[in-house]
Specification:
Blueprint: H1 2-34, H2 40-56, H3 58-65, H4 71-84, H5 89-100, H6 107-122, E1 125-131, H7 137-151, E2 155-161, E3 169-173, E4 176-179, H8 182-195
């Protein structure tokens, strides 16, 4: 019974993540097609700023999630944030559509998918490296050089630390994750043991 509940939870959780990413990609593609070439950069930085504000600001989350505030009030708040972030006018209308369709919670994923589209347009690849401990600058440069050689295009590498990984690194290239961390290996072993 416990095993069934675990797999049911994992399957539902995995489907929610996949659905969220699919929805985000669709909205990002629609926005990308809607904008003219001159406003793409401003929209990207504005989307990143809005996503960061949504992730970090509890009052903003409260206003957007609360049924106490009307759609017009939420739209005005989001339009104000959009304006402060330097977004073009089309972004305000886009955010209004997100509110109407109850998709504002997907804004961080939309920003990430939009950035990926921008990078594809430029021929650039985003790479995220998460390590248990800090990676020194020489090793960072070496990793970036090796990744550019492997991918045969310019890469924009971001480095993060997560002590919960115990040891090793996790490299995320687009939607693919290469995990050589101790935590990842332990999770993989646990999954195999549960399958039995």
């Amino acid at each position: 019974a416990l095993r069934k509940r675990f797999f049911s939870f994992f399957t539902n959780w995995n489907n929610q993540i996949m659905t969220k990413n699919t929805v985000a990609r669709r909205y990002a593609q629609a926005l990308f097609k809607l904008l003219d070439q001159e406003s793409l950069e401003a929209s990207q930085s504005g989307l990143q700023a809005l996503a960061k504000a949504l992730e970090e600001s509890n009052p903003l989350k409260h206003v957007l999630a609360s049924p106490v505030f009307t759609l017009e009030e939420k739209s005005a708040v989001l339009a104000g944030c959009s304006e402060k972030a330097g977004c073009p006018p089309a972004m305000g209308r886009f955010c209004e559509q997100l509110l109407k369709k109850s998709r504002v919670g997907v804004l961080p994923e939309i920003a990430e998918a939009f950035r990926d589209l921008m990078d594809q347009e430029k021929g650039k690849q985003q790479v995220s490296i998460i390590s248990a401990k800090s990676i020194d600058s020489d090793a960072r440069e070496e990793l970036q050089t090796q990744l550019q050689g492997l991918l045969k295009r310019p890469v924009d590498v971001s480095f993060k630390e997560d002590p919960l990984l115990i040891a090793g690194i996790q490299i995320r290239i687009g939607s693919k994750v290469y995990d050589s961390t101790v935590k990842g290996q332990l999770q993989k072993m646990r999954g195999q043991l549960v399958k039995g």
